[in-house]
Amino acid sequence: MTIKEVSEKYGVEASTLRYYEKEGILSLVPKVNGVRNYTEANLQNIEFVLCMRKAGMNIERLKRYMSMIQDDSKTLERKKILEEQRDDVVRELEVLNACLEKLNYKIEHYQKILDAEKKL
Amino acid sequence: MTIKEVSEKYGVEASTLRYYEKEGILSLVPKVNGVRNYTEANLQNIEFVLCMRKAGMNIERLKRYMSMIQDDSKTLERKKILEEQRDDVVRELEVLNACLEKLNYKIEHYQKILDAEKKL
DNA sequence: ATACAACTTAAAGTATACTTTAAGTCAAGC
DNA sequence: GCTTGACTTAAAGTATACTTTAAGTTGTAT
After folding, report:
1. Which of A57, A89, A94, B106 has the fewest CB atoms within 10 Å, i.e. the most exposed one?
2. pTM to 2 decimal places
3. SS3 sequence, B51-74?
4. Which nucleotide is nearest to B3 (CA to C1')?
5. Is the CB of B15 under 7 A from strand C?
6. Does B51 touch chain A (CB under 8 A)?
7. B107/A96 CB distance under 8 A
8. Which residues span the domain enclosing B96?
9. A24-56 pLDDT, tens digit each
C-alpha cells in the first residue's frame, strides 16, 4: 500500500507518517525503488499508534513503547507503559465528565433564561 | 487576593493568569498601586476558565465566550458556544473510552504472557 | 525523449498555549 | 535612605507535534 492510500485510509497526513517513521515510532517501511510500500504489519502498527495518540499518549512515551514491540524480553516494561497510559486516560475521563456536568448545568441555566424571556 | 495566592489556590502559574487577562479571557482585575487584587467575581471567572481549559476549550473559543459573559443580549450565543463545547467533550469521551478498552485488552494480553512465562 | 504526477529527503516553518526574561516600580524592614 | 522581595510590563523564548518547503528521483503517458 502506498503512503497516499494509507493516508486516506486512516485520515492521517503522509507527512505525519514519515515523521513517525523518522522518530522511530513506526518501524522502517519496506521500499520499492525508494518508495514506501506498507505491509499489513505496518498498517496494524499505524492503527495502534493513531489510537494511542488519540488517547493522549505523547510522542516520547509512544517512541519508548514502539521501540520494544518486537522484544519478547520487554513484555513487563511494555505492560507498565500501557498501564501508565491507562491511568492517565482514566484520570482524563474523570476530568472530562466533571466538565461535562458543569457544561450541562450552565446550558440548562441559559435555557431557563431564554424560556423566561420568551414568556414576556 | 494577590496573584500569588490565586496561583497557589488554583495551581496555575501567575504568568498564565496575566496571559489570560491580556488575551481578554479574564476581565481587567482591579489594581492597588499597580498590583492586582482579585475579587470574588474574578475568582469565579478563573474557576470557570480553568474548567473549560481542562475540557479542551481552546483559547479562541474561550475568548469569544468570556467576552460576552456580562452581556444579557448574548445569552443565546453563549449557550451555543457551550453546546459546541459539550458536543466536543462528548465526542472526546467516546474516543477515550474506545482507547481505554483497547488499552485494557492489551494489558490483559501481556498479563497472560507473563503468567505463562512464570509457569515454566 | 519529454512532460507530469507522485514520490523522496532534510531542514525550516507553524500553531497553540503558555513561560521566561529583562527592566522597572513599590511598600516594608533595617 | 537603602536593600529586599514581590509585584509590574512588553517582548522574546519554549514545548509539543506536526506541516511545509525546496530540491531532487522515478515510473508512466504522450
Report:
1. A94
2. 0.93
3. HHHHCCCCHHHHHHHHCCCCCHHH
4. D7
5. yes
6. yes
7. no
8. 3-119
9. 999 999 999 999 999 999 999 999 999 999 999
